[in-house]
UniProtKB/TrEMBL annotation:
One of its GO terms (cellular component) is cytosol. One of its GO terms (molecular function) is quinone reductase (NADPH) activity. This is Probable quinone oxidoreductase. The keyword Glycoprotein does not apply.
Length: 332
């Protein structure tokens, strides 16, 4: 059964790579048709993630023209051929591509129904980033009670959630963030040490991390800032410690000669969420865990702002300009 669906829609289209201004808001973009295994979802709300900026700038390759956006929440309005497990009218959240639009054809395998008791906003403010931080704290490095953890950009979309999850595990968290307002947010989440790495004192954050850990350094660093923090992260980690590089907010890290790891016998990981949720079983494991944390109130979300879809250029400017805390969202 197909609910009534228009033939054209509002969407943000990317024809070439470049700065935020290459994002084109259109009102007459064709509504996609769901193919085998896909659902057509009318998005109520869509998530904006830093990865969207990598596809926009060309740091990550993707075919153009392209509609950006890796996640959305809304209502199933049609099913592709041989698609099972869903009905029109289901309220769902999905991972896929093409979220900066009113309608998106999404893989049913990466879609789940939103449980009663959670709003679309709660879920989308924690979906891609929440699944990421759960996978990285359970599997990439299983964080233990008492571990010292250094987390960069701790007031950001992923950082805001990760700080809470690390504290609930019982880790000792050192969070970095840019500016007093962001630092206050990180402190309010229970971080043990908060460093404003853009302040005069905080510029020497490696020294502050060493001091906080009795000269030892941390057990694990979660570094999604990349270029600007990487060398410091290598210094701030303790002997036999782990560094997880998972993003390029300031640019990619320089090539890493593996011999550089030997003096401290370090482990380095470069994870991506999608590798941890390839099977339906893995995807449901992490989505169920996320929903449990949201429903119990253990995990709180923070929405930076809901931008109208036509303000997408400003949204990207704010995200890249380090002006957001928590999660930016788009609404068509
Ligand atoms: P954020 O909301 O965290 O935004 C990025 C933050 O990085 C900024 O707010 C800023 O915080 C900090 N930052 C530091 N240096 C710069 C810079 N030069 N330019 C811009 N920002 C800078 O984004 P997300 O929550 O969407 O993503 C966080 C990170 O996690 C990204 O690197 C992203 O790619 C990565 N990620 C990776 C995944 C994976 O599967 N590997 C999945 C999900 C996210 P401040 O001002 O406090 O420094």
């Amino acid at each position: 059964r197909r609910m009534s669906v228009p033939t054209t829609m509002k969407a943000v289209v990317l024809e070439t790579t470049g700065g935020p201004e290459v994002l084109q808001f259109k009102t007459d973009y064709p509504v996609p048709s769901p193919q085998e295994g896909e659902l057509l979802v009318r998005n109520n709300i869509s998530g904006v993630n830093f990865i969207d900026t990598y596809f926009r700038t060309g740091l990550y390759a993707s075919p153009k023209p392209e509609v950006l956006g890796r996640e959305g929440a809304g209502t199933v309005v049609a099913l592709g051929p041989n698609t099972t497990g869903f009905q029109t009218g289901d309220r769902v959240v999905w991972l896929g591509t093409g979220g900066y639009a009113e309608f998106t054809a999404v893989p049913a395998s990466k879609t789940v129904k939103i449980p009663e008791g959670l709003t679309d906003e709660d879920v989308i403010a924690s979906f891609l980033s929440g699944l990421t931080i759960l996978a990285f704290t359970k599997e990439t490095y299983p964080v233990k009670k008492g571990d010292w953890v250094l987390l960069h950009a701790a007031a950001g979309g992923a950082g805001y959630l990760m700080t809470q999850v690390l504290k609930s595990i019982g880790a000792k968290v050192i969070g970095t963030a840019g500016g007093p307002e962001k630092c206050a947010i990180v402190k309010s989440l229970g971080a043990d040490v908060v460093i404003d790495y853009r302040s005069e004192e905080g510029k020497d954050w490696v020294k502050l991390v060493k001091e906080a850990t009795g000269g030892q350094g941390v057990d694990v660093v979660y570094d999604s800032v990349g270029k600007d923090t990487w060398e410091g992260s290598l210094e701030a980690v303790k002997r036999k410690g782990t560094i997880i590089w998972f993003g390029n907010a300031s640019g990619p890290i320089p090539p890493l000669p593996l011999a550089k790891l030997s003096p401290k016998a370090l482990k380095v990981a470069r994870p991506t969420l999608f590798t941890y949720i390839e099977t339906r079983e893995e995807f449901e494991y992490y989505t169920n865990e996320l929903f449990r944390l949201l429903l119990s109130g253990e995990l709180k979300v923070k929405i930076h702002k809901v931008y109208p879809l036509e303000d997408v250029v400003q949204c990207h400017k704010d995200l890249e300009g380090r002006k957001t805390t928590g999660k930016p969202l788009l609404k068509a």
